[in-house]
Amino acid sequence: MEPMDYSGFFSEDVGSFFRSPVREIFKRVDLGSIYSFAGGYPSADTFPLDRMAPLAARVVEKYGAKALQYGGTQGVPELRQVLSDRYGVPLENIQVTTSSQQGIDVCTRILADPGDVVLTACPTYLGALQSFRSYRAEVCSFPLRPAFAQACREAVRSLRAGGRKVAFLYLIPDFQNPSGETLSLEERREIVAMAREEGILIVEDSPYRELRYEGEDIPSLYSLAPERVLHLGSFSKIFAPGLRLGWIFGPPALLDAIYVCKQSLDLCPPVFDQYLAAEFMGSGALDANLRKTVALYRGKRDLMLSLLEANMPAGVRWTHPEGGLFLWLTLPEGFDSVAFYETALSAGVAYVAGSFFGAGANTMRLNFSFMTEDRIRKGLLLLSDLIRQAI
Ligand SMILES: Cc1ncc(COP(=O)(O)O)c(C=O)c1O
Span 7-47+287-390: which CATH code? Predict the structure, then answer.
């Protein structure tokens, strides 16, 4: 039989989907067989494997058939209550999501029409760019420093003067993916003041907020401007990404649109997983696990920083993240981290090229959570050697 041509059947949205280059890397290589600084994977050592069987048994005993039934679209009341207690947010401001990636997607779906503009930082999270583009929104991005708020203000004014709608501003204020940067309180205040004066909404994506290894917590954008911020949280980096669970804090009128939107997406977040998360968080076990996770990742970050210092050739710079999972390397002008990737991969080491996040060709993102310290050491020595030979 002739292969059928399906191209005429697709919606226009499909034309703007693009594949994640990061996930393409994972398809090509077995992460266990190379030194991988590529993904944003948590360390398997942080998963509370020994607690899962008793936790699941407790869910079955406590909730019975309810745990396997459909649940409400907003999320099960027990999880919403635990989130409310932990973060001090009223129940009416909480929507549980099937991961924070879904949070980004539903926010875009309710706020952006084709041709509308999403403002963001450059570089920024690839999964968010995929979501914005899939709704045919346009992305307008600026470096976080030196004057992000001012650049956004000017962009809003000139876009509106040209008859364009700004859908929202998307930001990752804590230990940004991919750069590892954190916005200071002053920068947050400036951004909030700009958003209020220009009348725009903010989507604050915060999956790394609780992974802080030094310094003090900085108030979230949501706490500074609850009337105009949709704040996305996730269990992926503080419990387990396989659960696919997250949450949104926001004004009830916006959450109501998300609630209806989610009905057509998945009816409700996974119910069994929500009870697991509610029990894990509510019993204090999440905090205990988080303390271990933070200590483990702090050690890995420190190791990365000292290895970079000792081994990278002159002319290479990197960020000093106060938390999160990523470091950002800037190589000398003219270095092409996309072309260099094949050399690195055939030598057995992987990273993600910065240009995939909208940054210059001479940049790369390095993850430090996934590998053991021993593998980080060997992988970074190898990468430093390869870079030294290439520049
Ligand atoms: C900034 C950011 N937002 C969202 C996500 C998606 O997280 P989740 O597993 O909750 O969908 C990630 C994952 O790496 C991320 O880095």
Answer: 3.90.1150.10
